[in-house]
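Q: what sequence does this backbone want?
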C-alpha cells in the first residue's frame, strides 16, 4: 500500500509539471539562498581568518609613538621586553613609502620595511626563494634587500633578481631573496610591492633613532594576558606612566573576536534565507489544498473502495515531501554553483560544508511534512458520501 502511495504521489507531480515547478520554486530559492550565503560567508571568513592568523595568534603588537620627552622605544626598552619570561622574540617594524631604481628604471609607491631575523623565523612562508635577513645583516647593517613579487615581475622580467642591485635613496642594495606573493583582496599587509631590509639599516637610512612599532612573539599563547600585563609594565616604566604613549594589541583576541563575529553573521544570514523556505512551504500548502479540491472525486472513490484515512493522509504528505526534496536538491545544486562562482570572482576559499547541505535537506523535508500535514489531514477526513455526490 505504501508503494502504491509513492507511485500515485509521483504521478500527480509529473502530471502537473508547471504547477509543481512553480510550487517548488520557493523551496529552490530558499535552499539556494541558504547554501550560497552560508558558503560565501564561511569562505570569506576563512580567507580573512587565514590572513589574520598569518599575522600570528601568538603575537602581541606594540605601537609606541611615545611622548614629547621620549619618542619611541630604545634598544634598552626592546631588550627589557625581550627578556620577559614568555617572550620568544621581538621584531621591530619600520615602514615608509619610497622609490626604487634598477638600471635607470624607477618604481614608485614601494613600501620600504625594516625587519629582523625573528620576523622570518615566525613567518616561514614569507620567503619565496633566496635567503632571509640574518643576525649578521642586523648587526653589520648590511645593504641587502628582499623584494616583493610584483617588483620582481616589473623590474626583472626574464632575469633572475638574486645578486642584482637596486638603488634606494641613492644607496645600492644587493637582492638576496624574493618574497612570497600575497592575496590582493584580503591580505592584511601585502608584500607584493614591498622591499625589506635589515631594520638597523632602515633606521640609518631614514635617520630614525627609536622604534615606534614592535611585534612581540610569545612562547605560550595561554599566558598571553599575563604577558600583555608585563609588557605594559615595561612600557609604563619607559614612558613614565603616560597613558597615550603606547598601545598594546593581542592578536589572539582579535582573531577570536573576528571568528565570533563572522559566526554570528553567518547564522543571521542563514536565518534570513530560511524565511524564504517558510514562504515556499506556504506555497506547497496552498498547492496541496487546491489539489485536494480538484481531486475530491478521486479521494471519495478511494475511500468508498476501502482506503483508510491514514493511507490518504500518507499519500498527500508524500507528495508534499517529494516537492520539497526535489526543490531542495535543485536548490543545493544552484546554491553550490552560485557560491562557487562568487568564490572565484571575489577570490575567496570555496568551502561547501557537508553540514550545510544536510541541514538544508533536513529543513526542506521538514517544510514538506509540516506544511503538507494540514492539507493531507483535510483530505483524510473528507466524507466519501459528500465527495461522491458530484459524480
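A:
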Amino acid at each position: 500500500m505504501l508503494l502504491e502511495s509513492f507511485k500515485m504521489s509521483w504521478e500527480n507531480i509529473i502530471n502537473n509539471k508547471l504547477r509543481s515547478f512553480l510550487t517548488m520554486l520557493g523551496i529552490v530559492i530558499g535552499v539556494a539562498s541558504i547554501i550560497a550565503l552560508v558558503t560565501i560567508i564561511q569562505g570569506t571568513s576563512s580567507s580573512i581568518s587565514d590572513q589574520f592568523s598569518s599575522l600570528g595568534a601568538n603575537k602581541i603588537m606594540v605601537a609606541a609613538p611615545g611622548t614629547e620627552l621620549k619618542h619611541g622605544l630604545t634598544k634598552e626598552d626592546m631588550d627589557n621586553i625581550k627578556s620577559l619570561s614568555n617572550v620568544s622574540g621581538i621584531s621591530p617594524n619600520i615602514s615608509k613609502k619610497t622609490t626604487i631604481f634598477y638600471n635607470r628604471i624607477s618604481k614608485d609607491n614601494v613600501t620600504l620595511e625594516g625587519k629582523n631575523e625573528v620576523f622570518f623565523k615566525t613567518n616561514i612562508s614569507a620567503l619565496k626563494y633566496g635567503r632571509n635577513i640574518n643576525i649578521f645583516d642586523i648587526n653589520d647593517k648590511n645593504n641587502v634587500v628582499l623584494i616583493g613579487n610584483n617588483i620582481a615581475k616589473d623590474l626583472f622580467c626574464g632575469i633572475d633578481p638574486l645578486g642584482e642591485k637596486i638603488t634606494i635613496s641613492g644607496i645600492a642594495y644587493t637582492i638576496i631573496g624574493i618574497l612570497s606573493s600575497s592575496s590582493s583582496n584580503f591580505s592584511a599587509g601585502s608584500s607584493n610591492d614591498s622591499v625589506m631590509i635589515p631594520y638597523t639599516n632602515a633606521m640609518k637610512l631614514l635617520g630614525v633613532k627609536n622604534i615606534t612599532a614592535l611585534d612581540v612573539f610569545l612562547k605560550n599563547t595561554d599566558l598571553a594576558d599575563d604577558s600583555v600585563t608585563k609588557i605594559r609594565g615595561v612600557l609604563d616604566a619607559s614612558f613614565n606612566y603616560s597613558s597615550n604613549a603606547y598601545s598594546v594589541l593581542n592578536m589572539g583576541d582579535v582573531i577570536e573576536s573576528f571568528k565570533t563575529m563572522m559566526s554570528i553573521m553567518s547564522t543571521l544570514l542563514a536565518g534570513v534565507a530560511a524565511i524564504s523556505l517558510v514562504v515556499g512551504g506556504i506555497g506547497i500548502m496552498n498547492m496541496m489544498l487546491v489539489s485536494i479540491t480538484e481531486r475530491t472525486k478521486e479521494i471519495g472513490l478511494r475511500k468508498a473502495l476501502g482506503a483508510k484515512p491514514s493511507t490518504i493522509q500518507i499519500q498527500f504528505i508524500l507528495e508534499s515531501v517529494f516537492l520539497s526534496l526535489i526543490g531542495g536538491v535543485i536548490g543545493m545544486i544552484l546554491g553550490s554553483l552560485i557560491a562557487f562562482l562568487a568564490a572565484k570572482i571575489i577570490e575567496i576559499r570555496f568551502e561547501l560544508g557537508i553540514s550545510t547541505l544536510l541541514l538544508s535537506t533536513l529543513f526542506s523535508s521538514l517544510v514538506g511534512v509540516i506544511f503538507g500535514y494540514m492539507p493531507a489531514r483535510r483530505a483524510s477526513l473528507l466524507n466519501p458520501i459528500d465527495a461522491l455526490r458530484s459524480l
